[in-house]
Amino acid sequence: MNYRSLISYTALAVFVASILLWLRNYNSLPKLSISNPAQPQMFWFAFGDSYSATGFDIGSTQPSALNPMGNTALDPGTQSGGNNWIGYLTTQYNTSLVLSYSLAIAGATIDNSIATWGFGDMTSQVAAFQSNYASRPASAPWTADNTIVSFWVGINDVYYGFAHNDDPSIFVSTLLNKYRPLVEQLYSNGVRKFLFLNCPPSTRSPQVHEENNLPEQFQRHAAMVTAYNDGLKDMVHHFSDDHKDATVVFYDSWAFMTRVLDNPAEYGYRDATCINVDGSSCVWWNNLHPGWTYHKYQADDMLASLARLGW
User: Fold this and answer.
1) Measured on CA atoms in the order 215, 220, 221, 225, is the torsion positive or negative?
2) Is there a contact between 198 and 279 (Cβ–Cβ < 8 Å)?
3) Which segments cross the bilayer (predicted)?
C-alpha cells in the first residue's frame, strides 16, 4: 500500500469513527427548536384613562410570550366592546414580541389634587410603576433600548375644567405642571422612548351633547380641548429639546378621530353620532367611548408614527 492510499484509508477511518462517536452522543446533545425561535422583545408601559385601560392587575400574572397582555384577557377591562388600541398594537400590529403593562385607570385624570371624578389618577399610576417596575424585576427586565412608555390622558381633565368653568389657559398650565414631572420621573428611571397622545375631539361625543345643549357650551368645551392639546404639544416639544438622548413621538389622536367623524361611511359607520354596544357598527360603543373597530383603525394609523420607536 502506497503512502497516498494509507492517508486515504486513515482519513476514512477517522471520518467513520467521528460519525459513530456523534451517533453515540446524539441523545445527550441539546436539542435545537425551530418552533420557538429567539424573538426580539419590547416592554410597553401605558399610562392614561379608560381609552387605554385593559383591566391589567399588577399583582397577578405578568405579561409573557404566551400571554403578552398578562392577566387580562384581550376583551375584558376595556371600554370598547372588544380590544382597544393597546390590545391591537400588542397582539396584531407589530413585528416583534410586545409585552404590554397597562397601568391606565378608567376615569383617571392627571392629578386628583387638580381635577378628579373619584378614580385613580396618572400620578398614582406612575407611583405604581415606581413600586413594581422601576427596579427592572425579573418579571419585567426592561432596558432603555427595548422599552416604551405611553401617555393618553386628558379627556376627563378637560371635562372637569369645562364643567367648573375654569379659564382654559390657567387650568391647562396647572395640569401640565403636574404632568411634566411624571414624565421626568420615568426618564430618571432610565426610560428613553416616549409616546404621547393628545385629547381626541370629545366635544363631538354623544355624552357632551346629551349633557349640554347651548352652542356656547360646545364652544367652551372645544376651547378647553384646544388649550389642552396646544399646551401638551408645547410640553412635549420642550421635553424633547431638554433630552436629546430620548426618542419622543407625538401622535395626533384629535386629527385621526376628526377624520373618522367627518367621514364615517368610509370606515363602515352609519353616521358620526350613533351608539352600539357591538362596538363595530357605530363609532361609539357608549356615549363617551369609541368601539373596538375605531381602536383598530387608530392602531393601524399609528404604525407610521411608531416606527421611530422601533415598532
Assistant:
1) positive
2) no
3) 6-23
The C-alpha cell 364652544 sits at 219
Average pLDDT of the chain to the nearest whole number? 89
pTM of the model: 0.87
Judge whether 244 and 252 are in contact, CB under 8 Å: no
Condensed to tens digits (0 to 9), the pLDDT of residues 165-189 reads 999 999 999 999 999 999 999 999 9
**Cβ contact 102:63 at 8 Å:** no
- Cell 350613533: give the residue: 274
Q: pLDDT by residue (tens digit) across 191-218? A: 999 999 999 999 999 999 999 999 999 9
Angle at 303 between CA 298 and CA 307, to 5 degrees: 155
CA distances from 87 to 68, 93, 121 (A): 9, 9, 21
C-alpha cell at 114: 387638580
Nearest to 102 by CA among 150, 31, 32: 150
DSSP-based three-state secondary structure for 287: coil
CB 194 within 8 A of CB 246: yes
d(CA 12, CA 2): 16
Structural element, H or E, at residue 249: strand 247-251
Q: Is 52 helix (H, G, I), strand (E, B) or coil?
A: coil
Residue 28 has pLDDT above 60, yes or no: no
Question: 168 with 224: CB under 8 angstroms?
Answer: yes
Q: Where would I find the beta strands (DSSP E) of 89-167? A: 97-102, 147-152
Strands 247-251 and 193-197 come out as: parallel
Reduce the DSSP state of residue 214 to 3 states and report it. Answer: coil
> Please, which pLDDT band fits residue 9 given cuts at 50, 70 and 90?
very low
Asked if residue 122 lies in contact with residue 66, where contact means CB atoms within 8 angstroms, the answer is no
For the chain, what is the radius of gyration of the CA atoms? 26
* Residue 194: strand pairing partners: 149, 248
As given in the structure block, the three cell numbers for residue 294 are 375605531
Q: Are 98 and 68 in contact (CB under 8 A)?
A: yes
